[in-house]
Automatic annotation (TrEMBL):
Pfam family, one: Bac_luciferase
Domain called Luciferase-like: residue spans: 39-293
Lineage: Bacteria, Bacillati, Actinomycetota, Actinomycetes, Micrococcales
Official protein name in the record: LLM class flavin-dependent oxidoreductase
UniProt cross-references to SUPFAM superfamilies, sorted A to Z: Bacterial luciferase-like
InterPro entries: Diverse_substr_monoxygenases, Luciferase-like_dom, Luciferase-like_sf
Native organism: Brachybacterium hainanense
Length: 365
């Protein structure tokens, strides 16, 4: 889907209501043990052939985004989701990495947002350890900033006009201009908008407590965790069916917040039998009408999850050519991220922005 820029209304909500209900996608969780690296591509091809909807990469030594980027080219239908930390990484770079993963996967990628709780993690990046409330607040800010960065280019921003020497139309880019509680991000992104535009963001049951209710409510949905270590296929099917039935029984009709979009099978051993086990489980669950159909080649993760893809709406106040001139800047891609600061007791009032003059430059050459 190709969008064009619009110049008059605010950015749409990140996850508008579905046109119709969608069944959850079946996913298998893989822990990124470095020992798995040599067989990762072969393992991915087997899972892909088994008809599994998605593969979740959880941190086990290899960075989940790196592992997902290596796995994506080995698959054709299954999506790859990085279950990765939102707090102990620069927000601008995290958003860029996730958008780049979406380019690599041709729209078959997603993010299971989590937050590292090991004290060694903040120490490694020179930050003090955050308490539970601070961690949840920062995770929420990172999610909001990431979505603004992903929407900082329209789909048609890259014009590649050889005759005029214009590569990007600056009027089709906008600054993120995000001010969080401990950091700020100006943007815009340094990569064109990814195939899905907004990378789907989900929260797994195992991560809900650490990322907090604000993130859980803002996410595109929930990943229902089903521990299945050492179980035969039929028992896995029974557990998934029971878990979904229990959730359905307690759900509010028509509720969108916290909706189950993904069923994550946790604890399976990535051995030679994994693909056969997954194929049997997936077929049995589809026969019972409990999970969505097997993905087709070319389908995005948003399509699998039943999430619409929205167009970017350019905010005139943040449009890159106008904002850049108003600030007296000569380069569009400068000063992306202001360093994190301790959260102030009372947020200072923001200085009023000067009025933006009419733009003198419409393109980046």
């Amino acid at each position: 889907m190709t969008s064009t820029s619009t110049l008059s209304s605010p950015i749409p909500a990140p996850h508008p209501a579905d046109a119709e209900p969608a069944l959850p996608v079946l996913a298998v969780d893989l822990v990124t043990d470095p020992a798995l690296a040599p067989s990762l591509a072969e393992l991915g091809r087997g899972i892909d052939a088994a008809g599994i909807g998605a593969i979740v990469l959880s941190d086990g030594g290899l960075h989940p985004i790196h592992a997902a980027s290596a796995l994506a080219p080995a698959t054709r239908r299954a999506s790859v989701l990085a279950r990765t930390d939102a707090v102990h990484v620069e927000p601008f770079h995290l958003a860029t990495q996730l958008a780049s993963l979406d380019h690599i996967a041709h729209g078959r990628s997603g993010w299971l947002v989590t937050a590292a709780t090991d004290p060694a993690v903040p120490a490694a990046v020179g930050r003090p350890q955050l308490d539970a409330e601070q961690t949840a607040q920062e995770a929420a800010d990172v999610l909001e900033a990431s979505r603004l960065i992903w929407d900082s280019w329209t789909d048609d921003a890259v014009v590649r006009d050889i005759g005029s020497g214009v590569y990007v139309a600056a009027a089709r880019l906008q600054y993120a201009d995000f001010e969080g509680r401990t950091f700020s991000v100006r943007g815009p992104a340094i990569t064109p908008r990814s195939p899905q535009g907004q990378v789907p963001v989900l929260v797994a049951d195992a991560d809900r407590a650490v990322v907090g209710e604000e993130v859980a409510a803002a996410a595109d949905g929930r990943a229902l965790d089903v521990p299945v270590a050492g179980l035969p296929p039929q028992r896995i099917v029974e557990l998934v069916a029971t878990a979904l039935a229990e959730e359905t029984a307690g759900a509010t009709p028509g509720a969108e917040v916290g909706r189950i979009r993904l069923v994550r099978l946790v604890g399976l051993i990535p051995d030679a039998d994994l693909a056969a086990v997954l194929a049997e489980v997936a077929q049995a669950l589809r026969d019972q009408g409990l999970i969505t159909a097997a993905p087709t080649e070319g389908a995005s993760l948003r399509e699998q999850l039943g999430l619409p893809r929205h167009d970017v709406v350019i905010d005139p106040a943040r449009r890159s050519d106008r904002a850049r001139i108003a600030r007296g800047e000569t380069s569009l891609f400068t000063d992306h991220v202001a360093p994190r600061q301790p959260a102030p007791a009372t947020a200072p009032a923001a200085a009023p922005a000067p009025p933006a003059p009419e733009p003198h430059v419409e393109e980046i050459r």
